[in-house]
Amino acid sequence: MTQISTHTVIPPRSTTSERSVGRPVDRVDGTAKTTGEARFSAEYPYPDLAHAALVHATVARGRITAIDTAAASAVEGVLTVLTHENAPVLKPPPSPNPLNLSSMVSGTSVSYLNTDEVHWNGQPVAVVVAETPQAARRAALLVRVTYDSLPATLDFAAEEENARPLKGDLLSQAAAKKGDPEAALAAAPVSVDLRYTTPPYHHNAIEPHATTAAWDGDRLTVHDTTQSIDWVRRHLALRFGVPVAGVRVIAPYVGGGFGGKGLLWPGTILAVMAARATGRPVRLALTREGVYHTVGGRTPSAQRVALGAGPDGRMTALIHTSVSRVARVGGRPEPVTAVSGHLYDAANIRLQQNIVELDLLSNTFMRAPGEAIGTFALESAVDELACELGIDPIELRMRNEPARNPIDGKRFARRLLREAYALGAERFGWSERTPQPGSMRDGRWLVGMGVASAYHPPLQLDAHLTLRLSVDGTVVVRCGFQEMGMGGATATAQIAADALGVPLSSVRVEYGDSALPVAPMAGGATQTASVAAALLTAAEKLKKSLLALAGRSGESPLRGQRLDRLEARDGGLYRADRQGETYTGILSRAGRPSVEVAVGSDSGLGAAAGQVRFMARFLRDRRRWVKAALGAHFCEVRVDRDTGEVRVSRWVGAFDVGTVINPKTAGSQLRGGIVMGIGMALSEQTLVDPRTGRIMNPSLSEYHLPVHADIPPIDVCYLNEPDPTMPLGLMGLGEVGITGAAAALANAVHHATGKRVRDLPITLDKLL
Ligand code: MOS
Fold first, then answer.
1. Distance, CA 729 to ligand 1 centroid (Å)?
2. What is the pLDDT of residue 621?
3. Which of 168, 260, 430, 459 could be disulfide-bonded to 203 (CB atoms 3.0-4.6 Å)?
4. For ligand 1, which residues put their CB under 6 angstroms from it?
5. Distances (CA, A) of 28 to 34, 92, 245, 428
6. pLDDT at 609
7. Cα(597)–Cα(537) distance, rounded to whole angstroms?
């Protein structure tokens, strides 16, 4: 082996501009996605592929008394029609237990096609498998089902009075109290006591859910539109009674999720079942309507926010209670009132969540579950209090900015809300606002400006990965996370590049395959921080191995050096006196093609231990301090004085999300949240017929998502200060953007028109 002496070359000292973290680099998966090379779950070709379509129940609750599949089976190309009478028997879904994540991954507790019971209008009651998707869908229309209907509870508004207090668990509190808030409210010189309501919403990711499943004996390969390949793998193994190690889930590309691809919904399980039953690879690509029928959306809510204050604006009472819904067959109560324990320094606080149970499909998490709708009520009410007091809404917030966490007096890891408001106000031009509602005009348009706070706690979970550096200088990170468009692969490559001091172009990240080491779901604003922590540990291990390798040679200037005294840069390790060696040099002299290190275990068996570690860290962390990504929204609207049409004309969001790894992908995340907040405020709502439990607008033509023409330029800016308690100082930012957004818009509408809309969405009939 030729000895290569590299220490004589002294490269220039690197500057921060050569670092990758903090730069708005393009997505590593951008080219594959824009050229169509990226394959999504419904695009994997298999020889002999069959196609499935679902038949949905048309009653809300009851039993199937007969199911006639003769006409469907006679359609040319139909292979089979699966019903509860002939479908393979599945193991039942495990009962929910917050300490056992694998039990929480099921969207509902129903054993699909293993029961004659119907639990929601839209539940799959049969699956047609055919040679083509067209034949499957046509045949599905011909399946005749008759039911014995049972009385069903379907009307959220009517059930509100029957709501019962929610019990909290280890992960989330359902109630909290400090002092005597009702007495303080009654005694307050100035107060508001208000009711807000929000409708159900659906995620409407651009890619409808799809599964391609192929069995080989007891081995199963699944391409699934999921936010957690690990949960899918473990859940399918459990339900189909096969070893976890034999189940492989592949999902490198997911076209948006927003929580709707977090759990296991019927489509995934039924595609795998259809493949089992027919012995063919099967694809089940849901129609948009099929997604509405089989994937839960966001709960509706009815909320009370009551605030009491002195004439100086200091809050004395803060009461926030909520009613939301779950289904009898599952669903997750959202922490609707949680944010209200953190934002205002009120002497007396009461938070209480209540739920009703309905005979509908389970609700599920949707972007900033709880906080998104809770901040609409809280941040609207604070604006209403500011109007009562005649105090500027930002000033009111600053007067109530706490030094410690209001509800329990815990320390903040840090708190930069003042700074966020200062930055946003400057960029937005808040000082030009005249306080009187209706006082700002531009021709026929009434102009309004509103603000609201954003708040979302970060979380870090257990991640496993391997990191390899080869003699040619290339670096490979292998980690079983997945991308639903957040930019996780890009951020991970940037972090790896800096940790090792190599160019971004030499880093490749392999992800989206359960054959890789286990990583957390893409959700809860957890993934980047979780992977970063593991990656930083791995990079230290890798550099230690390389240093040890270098130290074996008497020629190396790194011999006898300590890693903490060296800098990783320019593809190698360097001393303060600029003597050092490249990794390529170290590896070639040692005759090694590569070095690889692992963090955590690669096997699914490590998952249980990881959960316990995660819970322990989560609880320890929560005892020590309160932390959050937060921000300030500034919204300007123009409202047509005759028609009530609302146009959003400007938006500034100033955020503290800790270290910004990539301003380009981070900006997309935050803007996306704001766009969803605009939709939530102005146009989106899922309409459920309270007589039948049927969703009346299950399509993009009737569920009104914002389009480009509805969205103004959105200026996103960051404080960019590292959080001392998070890896690299970064906090997840997938959820925080939507929190407070609907309130900022509603507050701007009030400022423009003097009309306060407390029932979302703010459609024009409510303004006339
Ligand atoms: Mo998020 S609601 O966990 O995708």
1. 21
2. 78
3. 260
4. 227, 257-259, 262, 365-367, 369, 523-524
5. 11, 40, 30, 33
6. 66
7. 10
Q: What three-state secondary structure class fits 617?
A: helix
Of 64-73, 90-99, 181-190, 326-335, where does mean pLDDT reach its minimum? 90-99
DSSP, res 17 = G
Residue 735 is a catalytic residue: yes
Per-residue confidence (pLDDT) for residue 616, from 0 to 100:
76
Q: Is residue 295 within 8 Å of residue 227, measured between CB atoms? A: no
Tens-place pLDDT, residues 667-689: 999 999 999 999 999 999 999 99
Calculate how far, in angstroms, residue 365's C-alpha sits from the geometric centre of ligand 1: 6
Strand-pair category, 282-285 with 301-309: unpaired
Pocket test of ligand 1: the residue of 104, 364, 367, 680 to mutate, having most ligand atoms within 8 Å of its CB, is 367
Distance set, CA 586 to CA 472, 552, 596 (Å): 11, 10, 14
Residue 15 has pLDDT above 80, yes or no: no
Nearest ligand 1 atom to alpha carbon 734:
1
Average pLDDT over residues 72-101: 88
Q: What is the per-residue pLDDT across 415-437, written as a single tens digit (0 to 9) for each?
A: 999 999 999 999 999 999 999 99
The pTM of this model reads 0.95
CA torsion angle 99 102 104 105 (round to 10): 160
Reduce the DSSP state of residue 220 to 3 states and report it: strand
Q: How far, in Å, is the centroid of ligand 1 from the Cα of 286?
A: 20
- For residues 460 and 230, is the Cβ–Cβ distance under 8 A? no
Give yes or no for a contact between 360 and 686, defined as CB atoms under 8 angstroms apart: no
Ligand 1 centroid–CA 211 distance in Å is 20
- For residue 10, pLDDT over 50 is answered with no
Backbone φ, ψ for residue 348 (5° rounding): -130, 130
